[in-house]
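Reopening this ticket.

The earlier resolution said the output was attached, but the attachment link was broken on my side. Pasting everything inline this time so it's all in one place.
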Amino acid sequence: MQPIDIHTLVTDDGVTLQLAWIAPRAADRPVILATHGVGNSFTQSGLWHALSLLAARGWGVAMLNNRGHDWVAMNAGDRRRIGAAYETIEDSRLDFQAGQHWLRERGHHRIVMAGHSLGGLKACYTQAHFAADDVVGLAMFSSPRLPDDKVWDWARHEQLLAQCREMVAQGRGEELTHVEMPTNTPAMKGLMCYRTYINKYGPDAATTALRFADRIRVPTFLLAGDGEKPQLSFSIDMEQALVNAPSVRRVMVEQCDHIYSGRHQAVADAAHDWLQALA
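Inline output:
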């Protein structure tokens, strides 16, 4: 496998991020610009292990540590609070744009936007609303339906939203709260400020990818394991919603959970087969 380098990026709004880079064997091949899910980090994500195996087959991989890394972190420089507890989903496009700029500076002009779980929704949001000419594909790995009206305890969700709105109205939206998520998600217990819960899971959330799927106009890859039913259900509905994507490939990986335990090679193989069609 190619050597792994860690680089530092700074977004247009001054957030310092890290990027793990494995260069492609051929400079003209598509390069994957990917990111992790909620509260995770770039090299701890199950997707990173799968993409490392993909890189061993010659694909370029840029794995971005987005501003939602870990639950709470402190930004270098201005020392503002970042992390999953404080992030705003709309700002995720600045993270991807920083990664795109970094790749272009190094001569890579065929970029695949990708992400795991919430990271996949961030990639989709960015591509839908801030599409770049050199993006040639979108890959969503195990992304969920947010908010999920099919499996969530909706009454509990509405209670949480009401509590968060009240705290925002009192000027306390940046205060942290331990959230018992209203469903069996990979992150059953979350730490976030009241404003962020509304931003991620409210009725107008930018995470509701089905609402803007028709804006995606690049080949799209959807993957979910058979052991993650909500994500699998979302991938089926998303496939139907991508009406303007030139092609959509949806893959279900058998005996596979949300973090791809023991199935990283199967995930890498499925992504490799799809990338071959783009190359």
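Reporter confirms the inline version is readable. Residues 34 and 63 are 5 Å apart (CA to CA). The first strand starts at residue 5 and ends at 10.
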